[in-house]
Write a structure and sequence with these properties.
It contains 12 helices and 14 strands. With 306 residues, it is of the alpha/beta class. The chain has one domain: 3-Layer(aba) Sandwich (Glutaconate Coenzyme A-transferase), CATH 3.40.1080. The strands form 3 sheets. Strands 1, 2, 4, 6, 10, 11, 12, 13 and 14 form a 9-stranded mixed sheet that branches. The chain has a 3-stranded antiparallel sheet with strand order 7-9-8, covered by helices on one side. Strand 10 and strand 11 form a beta hairpin. The protein is globular and about 60 Å long.
């Protein structure tokens, strides 16, 4: 783990992405139904990073953006889409037409990926589970090994541990050492941080360590799993960050419509990613008033004071 002599691991987003995310590396992203690392994905795209292997559970904006920008070589995961809004247009175009390139796909269930990260976090080679035995995933994914349980004789599926080169995880708040606190659904983030060779934490707020200790039970990821800490307010937009801002469903809908056509998508990418020097410029493009309204909505619906 990196950091200065005081244990601080503070970096800018370009510094953290530039140091840990390289061409051809394997990567995973935190969040599940919120807390998506959209700002980090924008930075990866701006830097022109290519040939990524993404090992993950279910993702929306982030994977569609990365695939559309030509940054992904391989996907190992469960679901790619926008729920009620629709399928992920760039991913569908990549798989069906090879535009801008045909990505490799390896199918898993959400439970299968979760167990791969549990094995990685525990530093054991595999995990035995029942998930996927009743599906064709086992038929087409040769890395899933089905054996007879040596204790009861029933079939179980063995899934290999996941150890990505880097995990990028967005949280509500962290201190400069990397103690990261998550409110709400945690997904697989704790195990992703432990399984990865390097972990970059992006957060809405950086707070003093004393403040972290006041709610120590909220610390999902401890400092010793973390290599870099980056403050990125509204770093999940247009996805939500529980306690900070709501899901910008209209923005997502507009993106989904734009992404249905390759030329319209590349225009969107120019407007919201390439023409923005950094995340602050992206926020200005989206509009601070719009972002602050999402914060007001979150506080209202979840009865958060302030």
């Amino acid at each position: 783990m990196s950091g200065d002599k005081n244990g601080h691991k503070l970096m800018t987003l370009p510094e953290a992405v530039g140091k840990y995310v390289k061409d051809g590396c394997s990567i995973t992203f935190g969040g599940f139904i919120g807390r998506d690392c959209v700002a980090a994905v924008h930075e990866i795209i701006r830097r022109g990073i290519k040939n990524l292997t993404v090992i993950d559970d279910s993702k929306t904006d982030m994977m569609d953006l990365l695939v559309g920008a030509g940054a992904v070589k391989r996907w190992e995961g469960a679901y790619l889409g926008y729920g009620a809004i629709g399928l992920a247009p760039n991913i569908r175009r990549s798989v069906e037409k090879g535009i801008p390139a045909k990505i490799e796909l390896e199918d898993w269930s959400n439970a299968g990926i979760s167990m791969r990260y549990l094995a990685g976090g525990l530093n054991i080679p595999f995990m035995a589970i029942k998930s996927m035995l009743g599906t064709d995933i086992v038929k087409y994914n040769r890395r899933i090994k089905v054996i007879d349980d040596p204790y009861h004789g029933e079939p179980v599926a063995l899934v290999p541990a996941a150890h990505p080169d880097v995990a990028v995880i967005h949280v509500q708040r962290a201190d400069a050492m990397g103690n990261a606190q998550v409110w709400g659904f945690t997904g697989n983030d704790e195990n992703k941080a432990r399984a990865a060779k390097h972990t970059v934490i992006t957060c809405e707020e950086i707070v003093p360590t004393d403040e972290i200790r006041r709610r120590g039970n909220m610390t999902l990821i401890p400092f010793y799993c973390v290599d870099a800490v980056v403050q990125v307010p509204y770093g999940c937009h247009p996805q939500s960050c529980y306690g900070y801002y709501a899901y910008d469903v209209l923005f997502c809908g507009d993106y989904h419509e734009a992404a249905k056509d390759r030329d319209t998508f590349t225009g969107w990418l120019d407007d919201y990613v390439y023409s923005c020097a950094d995340h602050l410029a992206y926020c200005e493009k989206v509009g601070w008033g719009r972002l602050q309204n999402l914060t007001r909505m979150e506080r209202h619906f979840n009865r958060i004071p302030g």
